[in-house]
Give the backbone structure.
Amino acid sequence: MSRIGTTPKVSLALALSISLLAGCTGNGGSHDPQSGSTSKDEGASPVTFTFFSADPNPNWQNMQDEVGKEITKRTGVTLDAEFAVADPAQKVALIATSGQYPDLISPKGELNKLVDAGAMLDLTDLIEKHAPNIKKLIGDQSKRLRYSMEDKSIYVIPTYSAVGGVAFAAGGGFELQHRAVKEAGYPAIKTLQDYENVIQSYIDKHPTDDHGNKNIGLSLNSDDWRMYISVTNPAAETTGKSGDGEYYIDLRTYEAKYHYRTEGEKDYFKWLNHMYAIGLLDKESFVQKHDQYQAKIASGRVIGLIDADWNYADGEKSLKSQGKQDQTYGHYSVMLSDQYKDNRFQSTGFMAGWGVGITKDCKDPVRAIQFLDFLASEQAQVLNNWGIEGKHYGIQDGKRVVPQEIQQRIMIDNTAFSRESGIGFYTNLGAHYGDGVRDSTGSYYTKNYPEQIIKTYTDADKETLKAYGALTWKDLFPKEDEFPVKAWGAAWNIAVPGDDDVTILANKMKVLTRKRIPQAIMAKPEEFDGIWEAYQQDLIKAGVEKMEKGFTTYVQDRIKLWNE
């Protein structure tokens, strides 16, 4: 099944097909369609581009990892990169107002600040003349690259949304340690009550660990933006609303509503209040920092999580390195009650929106787009996802396979392996295909397909999955083809200008929500209803209805932009 969506085919692939095989001519480069090398052959004159990313990357090795060296060998390009370490929105705002810009920038949801400052180049002509791999990859989805109804420029190459494919991996939902689920007899875990029962049963029998330290039923990560992932987004997800950030979008009318004002969510937070009151929710959930949260997970004392695997990965890696497989986590499709259906995997189609752009200060825009075009090539995508043939993977029966010794390194010491190999470091630098898409050899572009995913599982994972009659964690969730493709992509991916009333009001709502939600969860149960009602009234007084109406316009405009 394709994730490209249902928008009508448009003419970029057709209109530009004449130039697709013509290759790049800027700076004397050439294009070899067999190798995927674009514009700069091996031995190309070296160039360094400055780059800023709104995403952190603590393991960045200045392209001295094995994949990075190979990219430089193929393109002549190295990156002098800076990655966000604090609030990325503030950093992008500082860059925008400074008047001095890096050559390349990945601003995530803050692109509007740079566009308003006149910092970004329109990439339309550069793609037309110098980016055959990007044109081929984007195909008939070119309308989704345009910035807005008023400004049809292309300011970024989309790198956060893959083209085509399906999601095979389930890395979110509600997590439980394998030992707790096993001891409970592998019960059905479909509702909050089911989930709570497993935690309560285990804590009742094992209040402390082997060293006398208190076991923790459920811990949440509310450190800055992580509060969305671990605390507030699940309220929408457990009540049948797919991931649209702070909004719920009506599938029929495309009207936006602040999701905390929708049916069922009060009951979700009331459940967290209940968990706090009975001592199953970590009392430090709203004061601990991210590293403290990770340390608790690494101790093996936390029975349940509500999070994404990438957000607790370091703690779980530590458990694996200690041989504590039964204290790592499985992923479960948990809803408020059985009246809701889990649509976490509802397809957004190809979203565009977030990606890498070239600024007006770039000393060589042609060379920069050729670099980004190389990253979109088949050769580069295989390199980024699999590494170097003969070192990180081999070929068996015409398909790529990861040797067992490499797979063990990935499972036990993935941080060190990643730093050394660089595999995956360049995903959000280049446009790419999604999971389940095959390249010209018939192999998958990514490692996220069932046979390979299973190889990453521990024996404890496999034992638990077998008990539930499943092969992968995704098997425990409803499939994406059970839901329509969302016509707007994802609401969190829709850019709103910083000076717009919607943005100003959204900041007010964020302040209120980050104050009231923890307050309601930690309140005495008899005080919850009063705090919740006060919160709802605060939202109305702060202008939430105006914000919803304004954002509805942006949602509907995006649908028009993608379909006109």
